[in-house]
Specification:
Strand content: 15-25%
Largest sheet: 10 strands, mixed
Distance between the termini: 13 Å
Structural class: alpha+beta
Shape: globular
Number of strands: 20
Helix content: 25-40%
């Protein structure tokens, strides 16, 4: 039913269910604001699920003198690792030395800065290694004998978005997926917004009107469209869309380190252990001018990534090795530089808050590692317009599932297996690394494996699907298999069809599920 616009308004209407929008909604809800978050598709359905899955300072940004951005990102690594140790963990990176690309002294200098620009407690520092002796040297060409190893972090990027939205909801926020901001009128002290509810295939079913004291435009690649075409407001900044594409192959090496490979074109790519049985390789940086919702890798990018990896590995990587690809558009802050790789990954917040008009805050640029700091800065910009009293709070607050005695998912997994001895080892591992302490909610009514209900595919049981629907806004097989989890890599097309049929049965029994 349409909302009566005379009812008490929201303090903040956040538009965009990527990492920045979810982070801002969480921060605002935790300060006691009445918050609504709307996302036209699924949470993290675009840029925020198409990253290289890294929580990192950005070693290569040092070459572009982005010292402030790198310091900020390095400071955030350990904050995030402590907040969600079930979906993030430390990862050691090996950089094989190629003397014709960058001299060793330059790499050592860069790694020294990387180690010391911010305080480290969890992550070990960098060092040189002999690849003839180190396990990481085994799959590499025999003539590559020297390298460096340093630390960063790995993250399940789409789950990070979902957990921020989940925490926001638990702190009182209203989170509406598959809901588009169709229009908004700006008043003296209030926005009046019209929201369109959509089915999972994008068909509009109904509209409602809400009022909000302020709007945050966190629409990512659509930030300019939302400003000009929907809100009809001018902008002093714009975004430059840069496509980043990735390939996934069967596992190329057996150890637990990742690689960072230099290329003659001055770009770097990563080769990362992924989902136990796979290797993730990426990313590209290509100017993009199409529809952000339809971005996809092309054959040239696949060939580029395969060749870049093959320049290092003994066994060449060829396009037929690729089992999955994904691509996303990074909405970077527009700059006057020709090289897409050189465009800053930092962000700008544009506040439009004249004394006689309801405020509007727009987010341009950013990267997943700095989303929490971005959210803090967004709320600081809104302190005066909204009269916010409570200060920053998220730095020491765990995300749902991350409230462990120690930030150690491995120790939690051991505890989980002791408490739930009937849970198969592989399933206990996956639950611990996906839901953390919220596994106990998923298993609340289970006393044996049979209590998890139908095995829909692989090790995906009905109890997990019901949890994802109830607590994580999952509505489709894609939501479950490619964003809440990466089980799509393991269960194939038949498994995806089984999950699709499960959702179809739920929709038949509960029609409102399609638009909830």
């Amino acid at each position: 039913m349409p909302t009566d616009p005379t009812l008490a308004p929201y303090d903040l209407l956040v538009v965009g269910g990527g990492i920045n929008g979810a982070g801002i909604a969480r921060d605002a809800a935790g300060r006691g604001l009445r918050v609504m978050l709307v996302e036209q598709d699924d949470l993290a359905s675009h840029t925020s699920s198409a990253s290289t899955k890294l929580i990192h300072g950005g070693l290569r940004y040092l070459e572009y003198y982005e010292f402030g951005l790198v310091r900020k990102a390095l400071q955030e690594r350990e904050v995030l690792l402590r907040a969600a140790p079930h979906i993030m963990w430390p990862l050691r990176f090996v950089m094989p030395h190629m003397p014709n690309l960058r001299p060793a002294w330059l790499i050592r200098a860069g790694l020294f800065l990387y180690d010391h620009l911010a305080r480290r407690e969890i992550l070990p520092g960098s060092r040189g290694i002999d690849l003839r002796q180190h396990a990481a040297g085994a799959p590499l060409r025999r003539d590559i004998t020297r390298g460096f190893v340093y630390s960063d972090g790995w993250v399940q990027d789409a789950r990070l978005v979902v957990l921020n939205a989940q925490d926001a909801a638990e702190r009182g926020a209203t989170v509406l997926t598959r809901t588009r901001l169709a229009g908004a009128e700006r008043g003296e002290h209030m926005w009046t917004a019209e929201l369109a509810s959509l089915t999972t295939d994008g068909t509009e079913t109904s509209r409602q009107t809400v009022r909000a004291r302020a709007i945050v435009n966190a629409a990512g690649p659509w930030v300019g469209h939302l400003l000009g075409d929907v809100l009809r407001q001018p902008a002093t900044h714009s975004v430059r869309m840069v496509k980043g594409s990735h390939i996934v192959t069967r596992k190329l090496f057996d150890h637990d380190h990742a690689y960072i490979f230099q290329n003659p074109d001055k770009r770097i790519i990563f080769a990362i252990p992924y989902e136990r049985d796979f290797t993730l390789i990426g990313t590209t940086d290509i100017e993009y001018h199409g529809d952000p919702a339809k971005v996809a890798i092309n054959d040239d990018e696949i060939a580029y990534l395969c060749k870049s990896a093959s320049d290092y590995f003994t066994k060449p990587v060829v396009p037929t090795d690729v089992v999955w690809t994904y691509a996303g558009v990074r909405p970077l802050l527009e700059e006057e530089v020709s090289n897409p790789s050189a465009v800053t990954r930092d962000y700008t917040l544009e506040l439009d808050a004249p004394a006689t008009r309801a405020p509007l805050l727009s987010v341009f640029g950013g990267k997943i590692t700095t989303y929490r700091r971005l959210a803090e800065e967004a709320l600081s910009r809104l302190h005066a317009p909204l009269g916010i009293k409570q200060g920053d709070w998220t730095a020491g607050a765990p995300l749902p599932g991350g409230d462990m005695p120690e930030p150690d998912a491995g120790a939690f997994e051991v505890s989980l297996r002791a408490q739930v001895p009937w849970l198969p080892e592989a399933l206990a591992h996956r639950y611990a690394r996906t839901y953390g302490t919220r596994t106990h909610v998923l298993l609340a009514d289970a006393r044996s494996l049979n209590d998890l209900g139908e095995r829909v595919c692989g090790d995906l049981f009905e109890a997990e699907l019901r949890y994802l629907v109830q607590y994580e806004w999952a509505r489709t097989a894609q939501d479950v298999l490619w964003r809440r989890t990466k089980l799509g890599l393991h269960v194939g097309k038949e498994g995806e069809a089984s999950v699709l049929r499960w959702f179809e049965r739920q929709t038949e029994n509960t029609p409102e599920l399609a638009t909830r």
